[in-house]
Design goal:
Alpha-D-Glucose-1,6-Bisphosphate, Chain A, domain 4, two-stranded antiparallel sheet, 26% helix, 8-stranded antiparallel beta sheet, 34% strand, alpha+beta
């Protein structure tokens, strides 16, 4: 049974930082910061809502594989840019990826960060993705914005002790228009 309103609300916003355009999405959890950090970094806990990783982060890279996308999704090598438990984690894909609907055209790197803060028993998670400049960035956010909303809502479901399968992808599919308009 779906727990997601259809269409799902798109909450991402555009920010500028150090000359980069960023996609920023926030979620709040009535949970301690250490618990939210573990849900976002422990490969066994991550598998429930997004994926898992392997390797040694101390080496500066890990192999990340999204498990909610199916069994045949290839792992991607991610460079660990920052790991500051329990407040900040940043990674960047080693190989640039296409963001067009058919997988062709210009490519850009995945560069994402999680920032966590806690106040009064509530942990705020801020997801940030650095976008490519220009039209590629707009195409990129139209492609990935609804997906990040979907995955972060699956994390919310985990903390609400709900079935993550109740967060159904079709509710998010129409979100590309919101992101194209917001980031144009």
């Amino acid at each position: 049974m779906s727990t997601t309103p259809t269409p799902a609300p798109m909450t991402g916003r555009k920010e500028r930082r150090d000359g980069d355009t960023l996609l920023v999405i926030e979620r709040r959890f009535r949970a301690p910061i250490d618990d939210v950090w573990a849900a976002c970094t422990d490969p066994e806990r991550m598998e429930r809502w997004i994926g898992t990783w392997s390797g040694d982060p101390a080496s500066g890279s890990v192999s990340f594989r999204m498990t909610a996308e199916g069994e045949d999704v290839a792992a991607e090598e991610m460079d660990v840019l920052a790991c500051e438990p329990p407040r900040r984690f940043a990674v960047r894909g080693r190989e640039p990826q296409p963001f067009s609907a058919d997988g062709s055209g210009d490519t850009a790197h995945w560069h994402m960060e999680l920032e966590l803060t806690e106040a009064d028993g509530v942990t705020s998670l801020t997801f940030v993705q650095v976008l490519a400049p220009g039209a590629l960035g707009t195409e990129m956010v139209a492609s990935v914005g609804p997906g990040w909303e979907y995955y972060l809502d699956r994390l919310v479901a985990v903390f609400a002790d709900e079935d993550v399968d109740g967060v159904e992808w079709p509710a998010y599919e129409g979100g590309s228009g919101y992101y194209r308009e917001t980031f144009a």
